[in-house]
Amino acid sequence: MIADFKDWLGNFLPYSLESWKGLLAHYNQTWWPYSAASVVLAVGLLWLVFRPSLLHGRVTLWLLGICWAWVGWFFIGDQFATLNWSARYFSWLFILQSFLLIIYSFHGEMKKLSKKTRPKLWSSTLVFASMLVIPCIQILSGYSINQLGWFALTPDATALTTVTLLGMLNFLPTGLWIIPIIWSLFVFTYSWPLGDIPGMSLFLCIATLLMAFKLRRAD
Amino acid sequence: MQLNRRQLLQLTSAGALQGWCAPLLAESKERIFKPIPSTGEEIPLIGMGTWITFNVGDNTSLRDARCQVLSRFFELGGRMVDSSPMYGSAEDVLGYCETREAAPKQYFRTTKVWTSSDSEGRSQIADSYRLWKTKQFGLFQVHNLVNWRSHLPYLLDLKAEGKIRYVGISTSHGRRHRDLAHIMQNQDIDFVQLTYNLADREVEERLLPLAADKGIGVIVNRPFRRGGLFDRLNGVPIPDWAASLGCENMAQIMLKFIVSHPSVTCAIPATSQLAHLEENMAAQYGPMPDSATRKEMISWFERV
Ligand SMILES: NC(=O)c1ccc[n+]([C@@H]2O[C@H](COP(=O)([O-])OP(=O)(O)OC[C@H]3O[C@@H](n4cnc5c(N)ncnc54)[C@H](OP(=O)(O)O)[C@@H]3O)[C@@H](O)[C@H]2O)c1
Questions:
Q1: The complex's ipTM?
Q2: Which of A131, A136, B113, B180 has its CA 20 to 30 A from that of B210?
Q3: Nearest-Cα residue of chain B relative to residue A83
Q4: Which residues of A touch B88 (CB under 8 A)?
Q5: pTM of the entire structure?
Q6: Which residue in B220, B224, B199, B200 sits closest to B262, CA to CA?
Q7: How many CA atoms lie less than 13 Å away from B212 in the CB half-sphere?
Q8: Could you read off the pLDDT of B58-109 as tens digits, one per residue?
Q9: Number of other CB atoms surrounding residue A210 within 10 Å
């Protein structure tokens, strides 16, 4: 029955794994070398979580907002929607998430982040790891270097890093994790019939992180 | 008595000429063409679909690889290429191949309109002309019957203006057969596109006889169930009788089963591989199975 369901899902999938990898390669090539700016952004974000404060928390959310808007417009709307027409709706969802990040940056709870909080090495380490998890799984499952999906440039690594960053700031309002979860479920529905392990693992990673963060807050 | 092609086809499907016509098909080693019932224009038995396979986005090396497949398709005598706005970048890639001279000026361009909105339908149709870089389509179909009441009259207008040569309706996966039968009975269409293969034979009951009766051409999609039939036949040895049909592989067995049905005009397998394309195109050559062999093919398939 599970095989039938997978086959049924496959009927709606308009492209192959080869085309998906080809799209990543084309996108990476199109934006190189400007995409190197994402490394600067990543390092900046790591530094910001290393030194938590209200201002740094806010800037973190603003920078994340820029990443979501970029990915929504340039990756999903401009590229992915040419392969998969249903992705165009996600382009708008990503832009909505970017607005939400900016709006939530003025949320009262952010004030709990004070200058007195000590720098947190392990927070930065976890965020760094979450930026690299998806590209690592991609390499292990046979993607080549030019086909990897990086944080701030592609949706999966951006969604995963966002959830980690928010968790590390101990700031996970429902309004900010709904879109990452919806996205990871959508990714699962097409990655499964494609046999794409990196895409399939995204939901697992995000759901596990969210549960861990929620449990930590409940303690 | 002189019979025109439409009458000949109708009689064949009704079984009246089965004994006369089947050996003719069965013995031939020639490339076989079938007439489009509404005009008698002859087309090759094997065309090409583009769902998934030609949806490669903007990646130039994948686009060029597909152009090679398309170019080889024409070298092997192919004519009908089927696409749809639903297939992502496939129409765009076909237009790209045309600029790379992978396609002749004239071929049987086949696409669809697929939207529930009237106005979006008009702009989708205009987009298809732009993407394929053509002024005339061989066939324009209403995809999966979506909003056919509005799209069909518009397509018939375009046909009257000479911008489309044939008009049709498509469905697949056995969906909406009752509605399709109703359209076939009451509308002036040249083609239907539907799913038929060794595993999905529901259309033999009603739709294929109806197509013959009404003089409507039949294009068969999903001849391999999107590749699933190869998985099902994986490890099964090629049966002994396949050699007498000139079949060297499962693809040819499956395709010859389909195109030897008297009501079927052609099949449109999709592939991204040159080797697969060559296997598929070889199925347009005789000999073809007669009705007794077709029955044997079904019972073989049901056994394995
Ligand atoms: N409603 C509609 O209007 C509708 C619905 C469905 C389909 N269609 C049309 O019908 C066309 C055909 O249907 P389809 O694409 O769904 O499926 P299909 O033609 O039944 O199967 C295509 C699959 O079979 C594989 N294949 C092709 N030739 C092969 C060979 N000789 N040996 C081994 N594998 C082979 C291809 O893989 P490789 O790339 O590896 O060769 C591909 O994965 C579509 O492309 C589309 O144009 C229309």
A1: 0.91
A2: B113
A3: B88
A4: 14-15, 82-85
A5: 0.92
A6: B220
A7: 21
A8: 999 999 999 999 999 999 999 999 999 999 999 999 999 999 988 998 999 9
A9: 18
